[in-house]
Amino acid sequence: MMHPVDTILSLVLLSVLFSFGSSRLPGLILVVGFQGIVASIVPFFIGHGMSAGGVIFTFVTLAVRGIIIPMSIYWVIKKVAIRREVEPIIGYHASIFCGLGLIVAATFISRQLNIPTISDYTLLFPAAIALLVSGMFLLMARRNAIAMVLGYIMMENGIYLIGTTFSVRARHIVEFGILLDVLAGVMIMAIILQNIKQTFDDVDTALLRTLKD
Amino acid sequence: MIDSIILWFLAILTAPFFSAMILKVKAFFGGKKGPPLMINYYTLIKLFKKGSVYSTSTTVIFKLGPIISLGSAITVLMFLPIAGYPPIFSFNGDIIFVLYVMGLGRFFTIAAAMDTASPFEGMGAAREAYFPIICEATMFMILIFFYRLTGHLQLSAYFTGESPLALWNLAGAPLLFIVMAFFIILLTENSRVPVDDPATHLELTMIHEVMVLDHSGPDLALIELGSFCKLFFYSTLISRLILPFGSSVPGGTFVVYIAGLALVYLIVGIIESVIARYRMDKVPQFVLTSFALAFFATIITLEFIK
Amino acid sequence: MSQFFTAILIIILGGSISLVLARQVRLMRIIAVFLLSAGCFWGLFNALTNLIQSGSDTASFTYLNVFSLTFQMDGLSSFFLVAIFAVSLFAAIYSFHYLEDSQNPLRTAVHYFFFSILIASMALVVTAANMITFMLSWEIMSLSSFFLVIYNHHSAENRKAGFLYFVFSHVGAMFIFAAFGIAYGYSGNFGFGAMASLPDTAKMLIFIFTFIGFGSKAGVFPFHVWLPYAHPAAPSHISAVMSGVMIKTGIYGIIRIYALLDFHTPVCGNILIIAGAVSGVLGVVYALGQHDIKRLLAYHSVENIGIILMGLGIGMTGVSSGNPLMAILGFSGGLLHVLNHSIFKSLLFMGAGMVVHKTGTRSIDALGGLIKNMKITGTTFIIGSLAICGLPPFNGFVSEFFIYIGGFKGVALDKSAFVMSILAIISLAIIGGLALACFTKVVGVVFQGEPRTKAAENVDEKGSSMLVSMVILAAACIVIGIFPRIFIHLSLNAVSALGLGYARVPLAPFERITGNITFGATIFLGVLLLVMAIRFLAYRGKSISRSGTWGCGFTQPTVRMQYTGSSYAASILELFSPVAPLEEKHLKIKGRFPVKTQYQSHVNDIADRHLNRLIVNPVLSLFDKLRWIQHGDIHLYIGYILLAIVLLLFFI
Amino acid sequence: MVEIVFLTPFITGIVAFFLPKAMGRQVLVGTGAIHLILSLLLWMNRPEAILNGYFAVTPEGLLSLLVISLLFFLISVYTMGYLKASEIQSENIFIGSMILFLSTMTMVTLSDHIMVFWIAIEATTLASAPLIYTHRSSASLEATWKYVLICSVGIAMALLGSVLITLSLEIGNVDVPLSFSALTQVAAKLDPLWLKAGFVFILVGYGTKMGLAPMHTWLPDAHSEAPSPASALLSGVLLNCAYLGIFKTHKIMYAAGLSDFSGTILVAFGLMSILAAATFILKQNEYKRMLAYSSIENMGIIAFGTGIGGIAVYGAVICMIHHSLIKSSLFLSSGNILLGYGDRMIHRTGDMVSRMPKTFVAFFAGFAGISGFPPFGIFIGELFIIVGAFRTGHYIAAGIFILSLCFIFAGFANQVMKISFDDFKQGDSGKTMGLTEKAGMVWPQYILLLTSLMLCFFIPDTLYQTIVDAVTAIGGGLK
Fold this sequence. Notes:
The structure holds four protein chains of four kinds.
Chain B: H1 2-29, H2 39-49, E1 52-55, H3 60-78, H4 94-114, H5 119-150, H6 155-159, H7 163-170, H8 172-189, H9 208-211, H10 218-242, H11 252-274, H12 283-304
Chain C: H1 2-20, H2 25-52, E1 57-63, E2 67-73, H3 75-98, H4 105-127, H5 131-149, H6 156-187, H7 200-218, H8 227-233, H9 236-261, H10 266-289, H11 293-320, H12 324-359, H13 375-388, H14 395-411, H15 415-447, H16 464-482, H17 485-496, H18 508-539, E3 544-547, H19 565-575, E4 582-586, E5 599-603, H20 606-626, H21 634-651
Antiparallel strand pairs in C: 1-2, 4-5
Chain D: H1 4-16, H2 21-44, H3 59-85, H4 91-110, H5 114-132, H6 138-171, H7 180-186, H8 192-210, H9 218-225, H10 228-255, H11 259-281, H12 287-308, H13 311-341, H14 352-355, H15 357-370, H16 378-391, H17 395-421, H18 443-457, H19 461-472
Helix pairs in contact in D: 1-2, 1-4, 2-3, 2-4, 3-4, 3-10, 3-13, 3-18, 3-19, 4-5, 4-10, 5-6, 5-10, 6-8, 6-9, 7-10, 8-10, 9-10, 9-12, 10-11, 10-12, 10-13, 11-12, 11-17, 12-13, 12-16, 12-17, 13-15, 13-16, 13-18
């Protein structure tokens, strides 16, 4: 039987593909925002007993992940007014094929090790892994610094998905920690981005290769 | 004991005489009459009568040279079993001591030569330092050979009484090599032809003679006497090896020994008359042959004596 | 033991005080030298008494709450202590005038500090009785001696020397670490005692590793590369200490480990004899080729280490073939040579130091005729040379005589022992000849003849403290050479501490040998007196005149025409050209009237040559190939993280 | 009252952001002093935490806490002089982040809950990022960027690892709080597969922060670009904090009987790091990068020792303590060198022995110590690690270990001798040193070195006991 969670998660998988294909930053930001929202509402559907505080907390998370972070990144783009290209190292089509490949792999792996706690949500684990790995993929395959930050956030989304769904225990501390940390991390990165922009007049990380042996 | 001491004196006294034999032989081959057999004594006496001229560059070491070289030669003779009689002194390992005392003599001969600041004497010194290195190696190879046979490490054990004969019975064939090796050492250590030509007149080609160029008077006499004794030492060893026989009649052994000795000097003389001296860079090979012979002999004994 | 520690404390105190008093140079030098020599003397006295009574004494302190620093002073230790303290004593006295005109007082103070640390650490090394203690003192010794080597760090070659020495000693230490690691791995405690109970393979490994480790300190070929650089770099009294005793701590290590392992296979003996023969012969050959007097002496250290190793090797062969007499002869000969070498080598270095100090050059071919102005230095140097050539009646002969006799005992044995003994004896003979050639060269070119350059003209030998220590050491050479009996007793006590399974070493046969040596020496001296008397008579009332050297018909001889050290050695080196390739640089002679030309020659040390070719360059190029790791591109770096995870996930 | 120890610097740090220069420095030193006192108090009477289950006082934590606050105090003293000698814009940010950095690291040492620990580690990254960017140069910007991004990614992995460990708890269905101590109790019941997976992720994650090859890539850049006091903190303390995470997890693995698995991985990573360090030290031409690589080497040594177990663990902990002491002193001295010669390249320095004798003593002694010469403690540590390696039969590993140590020593010695003794090229033009060696800028190094020297010969019983408690928990010991 198809669980509602799975329907949303299938969208997430699609968004992964889209993120690989998208050549322009705003689109990428939208994708990330969407994934953030999904990642934070999934816990509702998974029947770990939800306290009132938990509900509020989850909403805060949703707000931060879905709105604040994407907005702030968008604001950064506006502020540093840079080209909107993500400057891929690996081309878009190649990326999409990688994406497909990794989704299949993720599903396969999750089949191999069936995890009791989430056994009845077929897509949960694959989606999580997909987010995680695709985040790393963006980190490695995009030269644009902002795209890399977005990749980082995507990765965090994946981990969040796993973290919140795998175990009830100490769930809020997990959520809280990740939240706080992503927030602060993104802020710091945003500041660095600005400085990069000021110093190099671009956010192309190809310029950041002077320190080497 | 007493007769050993007498023999030692005789050795020192007769050494010049035997060296004169070589001159006679050479003269004979040259179809000349040659100097009298007593020539060396005359020379020594003449020198002892003279005074000396010392180079301004020299120091006391220059004077020490002759003393120590003669001293070492005489000391060596004390450990030498002459005519099969036991030597004056003998102890386990005396042969090593003897060899090193000779080394001491060489050190000071060279030092005296270097003291004169003369390029020629330096040249001679360099050669004097060079060839004996190989000779020493050979000597120790021969020692190993003897030790392997007799189990002793003193001259008296090899050359007194019947022991040379015993050696021949024990390992005859290898002993031949040893005798040849000995002979090469004799020629080298006493700088005879073909290693060095004492009669040459070109300093560039000399070894021993050039080192004593600046010595004069009694100093020179001491040096000469020293070299006579040294030659005597080696000849004695060889003579005992080539004529190892003793005889029951009193003094018989002595006669045999004298005959051997004369024979050795004769051969040296003949060699000096028929062979030309080698080129300097050929000499090492010649000396190395002696080492090869001794080494070969020792390896063979390893097969013989189990 | 307490006396021993007081001696150490006095020495270290002297060093530390000199740091405090760095401002008042003279006072500092006086106090430092006084305390150092006092401490050394006290330690020497204490060690000697302990050695003569062949007593054994232990002291232990807890270390890091559960471990212990243990010191033991048995015969072997005290024997080495005697050498260490004796040489350091005279080196300290020597240093008083040697350093008088040093520009930088602070550096002198620091030098005295590390000098004291070096003496102390050497003493602790030879008394250390467990692994931690040993390594601790060993490393401190290396460190302090390194600072002494770069005492004059303004010249680039000294810096190179220091670097080489530093690296070699550290690598050597690492080998010893490994050996101890193996020992600990089996026994599970740091005590030395447990080594005897290891399996044979472990023992073999330990022996080889320690041999490499200690060999690189002792300067065994091919681990000697640092030595000819470091010894010339250091101040002469330091060279005396380093070459005289510090490298002997390596020898000590080898003997000690052998005794501890209690490992009676012929392999040990064979290794030592072969290594000894190679180091001995090559060492003296390279020495013959040197133009720098201190470098030459340094190579002679390699040679003498070779002789010592052969002695010990003969001893080990004796043990393995169950031949007590041969064993004891070998060991006692080797040990006695340790003492002798430390005496005459430090004497020679001090003489060389005096020469360098006064003439300001180390190049042999620039000197000449020094003995006319430096009577004492020259005489003592000649005595040292005779001793190092192993000629009677000097101390070098005694130890070599023992080694010879031991070797000949081996000749009577079966095949491998037979071959080894032949090897040892023949190389000893060759070494003797070459050493004679080498030192006639040094004496002849440096001290005799005429000065070759301005530097060698009208020098003096002021500096009483330097002369005193040289004279005493020279006297020691003669005394040991003529009356070796008591000293053989000392080394026999040391040998009996090895615990070779021979209960108490029987003295009779060895006393006979020493008696013979004394006997021979006296005969020789007697004969010498006789000849002198003859000569005296011959010259009574004769006319003695002086004139120039006979130039063989050439009437304008100049000092430049003298035979140089290089040409003296050339023909001999030709014989050894395969192992000592000679490099020559000179202009082609052309035209009927050739212009002024020049000539340089340099003998290559094959170990030094191949060190770079075979080890250094490959390693460097290998690591260079890996440098792209730090590529500068962040994408790659994140890739590494992913890679690491993926790889590790396979192992789950 | 455990929390106070990190709350105090937290508050003062926040305050420091808004203080004028002069006061800021006082606050820095003051905080250092107070923190030192607090942690000493903590050491003496080990109290319960208020938020029990989230924070706790563990022996390993105490060890690193003491090291941290001792170092921080001395470094803050040095910083006074450093800030006077060098011009830093927006100094209050620098000081503020220094103090916040301290507080976050303290939090790391005291936290017991897996997640809290993780948060604290991430917090250290964020707090230290401004320190690296202090000089506002493009290079320092790049360094900061790499530092933040790589560490964040790595630490995200650690987060995943922690989650996986909770999963293993889930599957093994045992119900305990998510604290290291509690998990160690029930380790046997945890699901081994997920526990292993969790360890792998945590190792890579915290390994990134600790500077284990091949995740070490950010380290040389960050350490060379940050101002020297910050580098001293990063290298001397931060790495230990990251190591603490691995240590605690390894503890769980040991309790779960999986120490072979984790041990082998640690040994492998340790060797890799040492080799990586050797690769870059041999021909290094910037002295701060060289020191950074030497930190990587020492982290490798520590990981190696921890992985081997037995007496080697004891050696590893000894190495950790002494490395912090010596390496921070080295970085401080390097600060003097930088101020003196005004250049990072080795070939533009030289003749330090006569130009900056005091610094030379500190620097050379530090070099001797870091390369394992007595009388400094790393010697003992390495000795124990090597013998331990042979004891447990890691012959090959020990061989590689020893060899690469030799290479590193050769390279290190070569560079250090160049700095210390080579002739100073520009010096001929009569250029004077940019720095007069004030007492405040050499004594901190001397004190650090003297501490290491003292600890090489005498370890106080309480310290010794704590170390033993720490190492016995992961199968270490003195036999």
